[in-house]
User: What shape does this take?
Amino acid sequence: MKPIRNAFATLALASALAASGYANAQSAPMPYTLQADAQTPITATQQQQDEVMNLLTAHLGLWQTRDPNSYPYERLVTEDAVYEYPYAETQSEQHLQGRAAVAEALRKLSAAAGERKFSDVKLFQTPHADIFFVEYKATAYVPASNSPYEQRYLARITVKDGKIANYYELWDRDIEASAVAATTAHN
Assistant: This one.
């Protein structure tokens, strides 16, 4: 009975991943430019670079899926993952800890944010093989305010055992505040 149950669980997960677009994100990482500094020793292998870019692509895929609630985000993060957004509006959004808490908060955030497009991705290596900085641009159309949204993000990503263990993200607070104000004014 257990092998049959495992087979059904595997089939259900594969179906959910395919429907969510996660499978596509995992097979094709976003194009990026590697930013190398001659002063910084390169400690990450090509495989580690590809791994972090696959994780980033899957992370950003949450903002591109039609149904964030069915997106299997838990598969991307370690059990004890910590996500930090120091510019978030509330204290509870600034520090997220644990796989379930991270996935739940990000699903809610992505559902409220609407679909975004990502481009201009730059990967920065550090002297630590498991820590990377990534810069990227997000654009969207905000129907509530009838206006475009464009923002640059900088994230520090720590990878452990093929999953995101720590994610720390910064953005331009003035652009974010303007977008929120425009949306509030039109509602």
